[in-house]
């Protein structure tokens, strides 16, 4: 079982790395244009928060080094993304972005880690408390995939829910759910099990609406960017 979980975890690491790198094209556009335009920083800030906490969870939980390695890589990548947002954000949004980053990516992780270390002296209890926090945050973030699915049903168009993102949500959730089952880790199993279910639902919607005639009027640039962010943030919850 231990050997099987290791190989499955390695496959999960590879898939998660690909998902972490999926926004590279977006940030290449931002760098070339020297502006974040109407793209939102919150998905990347939240992903950095989740990756940081899951990295710590993997470190303090025996046998979960595969969780810490992939999320450690993800945290480094997200730091680059968030830094580019701060660098190229419009002047009126720069201070707001810095404040949100300071709260969610600096103060909150420090507070969560210190709280678990101070409240619980037993390593197992400390690990479980951090796992509860991580799983809870991931479940909260599931509003993004739900929003993407609502957009598809409303517009009868899959334009803003790319197939490959939906596929990797499905595949990554499945792989990590199997890994969590073999490791008997409920904190990994619950969010990734839900990610697998949502990925399945998105693939079903894609099959239903991929050839459907879109409805509604043309969207403005801000609506399009918002929908692109909805599809992009479907990756947030599954990187555990």
List the helices and strands and how they pair.
Elements lengths: L1 H19 L3 H10 L8 H19 L4 H24 L2 H29 L3 H18 L2 H13 L7 H21 L2 H24 L11 H12 L8
Task: Characterize this entry briefly.
With 240 residues, the chain is an all-alpha fold.
Number of helices: 10
Domains (count): 1
Helix content: over 70%
Shape: globular
Instruction: Provide the low-confidence segments as ranges.
Output: 230-238
State the order of secondary-structure elements, H for helix, E for strand. Answer: HHHHHHHHHH
- Give the strand tally: 0
Task: Give the termini distance in whole angstroms.
Answer: 20 Å
Would you tell me the overall average pLDDT?
A: 84
What does the largest sheet look like? none
Rg, Å, rounded: 18 Å
Q: Which class do the helix and strand fractions yield? A: mainly alpha
Strand % is under 5%
GO molecular function: sugar transmembrane transporter activity
Pfam families: MtN3_slv
Function: Mediates both low-affinity uptake and efflux of sugar across the membrane.
Subcellular location: Cell membrane; Endomembrane system
């Amino acid at each position: 079982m231990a050997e099987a979980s290791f190989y499955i975890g390695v496959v999960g690491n590879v898939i998660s790395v690909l998902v972490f790198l999926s926004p590279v094209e977006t940030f290449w556009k931002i760098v070339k244009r020297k502006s974040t335009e109407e793209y939102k920083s919150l998905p990347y800030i939240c992903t950095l928060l989740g990756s940081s906490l899951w990295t710590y969870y993997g470190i303090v939980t025996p046998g979960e080094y595969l969780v810490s390695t992939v999320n450690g890589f993800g945290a480094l990548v997200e730091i680059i993304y968030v830094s580019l947002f701060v660098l190229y954000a419009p002047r009126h949004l720069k201070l707001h972005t810095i404040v949100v980053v300071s709260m969610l990516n600096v103060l909150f992780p420090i507070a969560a880690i210190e709280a678990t270390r101070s409240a619980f002296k037993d390593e197992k209890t400390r690990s479980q408390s951090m796992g509860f926090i991580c799983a809870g945050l991931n479940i909260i973030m599931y509003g993004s995939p739900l929003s993407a699915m609502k957009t598809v049903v409303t517009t009868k168009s899959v334009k803003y829910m790319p197939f490959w993102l939906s596929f990797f949500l499905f595949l990554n959730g499945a792989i990590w759910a199997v890994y969590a089952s073999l490791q008997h880790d409920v904190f990994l199993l619950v969010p990734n099990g839900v990610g697998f279910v949502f990925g399945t639902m998105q693939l079903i919607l894609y099959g239903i609406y991929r050839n459907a005639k879109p409805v509604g009027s043309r969207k403005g640039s801000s609506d399009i960017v918002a929908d692109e962010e909805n599809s992009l943030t479907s990756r947030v919850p599954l990187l555990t």
